[in-house]
Task: inverse folding
């Protein structure tokens, strides 16, 4: 669902008291929190178009970057920077792509896509809805999440509580 499908619902979700993230509604069962900081959660799930795809979810309710206070914006973007650095180190990506949408869930989050020379989208934008066939072999997603957590742990950065 995007705002294109149900504008009324999307507009309701723009308000923190109705936002599914702020209300701590049940996320997908296979969601893994890789890292938690004062400003964000770094999360991933296996139903993605590229191995290593993850996102940084703001703790402060905002729909747009300009909705954040300067301290929250700085903290959030530092978390995005740190997550991208970890993602590049763990996956060996040539380039990390960053995308902010919010068309489906209007709670600020940044998608991180590790790009490689042999990814399925050479010279084109990522087709994030293309998830068949699954990109992870048995146990590979858990291995990726653990490697990301280990990367932060090795640098004494907070893991999920």
Result:
């Amino acid at each position: 669902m995007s705002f294109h499908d149900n504008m009324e619902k999307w507009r309701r979700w723009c308000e923190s008291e109705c936002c599914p993230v702020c209300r701590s509604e049940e996320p997908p069962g296979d969601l893994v929190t890789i890292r938690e900081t004062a400003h964000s959660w770094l999360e991933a799930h296996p139903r993605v178009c590229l191995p290593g795809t993850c996102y940084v979810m703001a703790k402060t309710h905002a729909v747009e970057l300009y909705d954040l206070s300067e301290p929250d914006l700085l903290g959030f973007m530092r978390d995005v920077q740190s997550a991208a650095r970890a993602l590049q180190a763990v996956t060996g990506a040539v380039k990390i792509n960053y995308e902010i949408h919010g068309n489906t869930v209007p709670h600020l989050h940044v998608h991180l896509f590790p790009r490689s020379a042999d990814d399925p989208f050479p010279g084109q934008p990522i087709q994030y809805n293309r998830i068949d066939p699954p990109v992870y072999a048995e146990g590979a997603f858990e291995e990726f999440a653990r490697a990301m957590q280990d990367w932060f742990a090795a640098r004494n950065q907070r893991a999920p509580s």
The chain has one domain: 7-154.
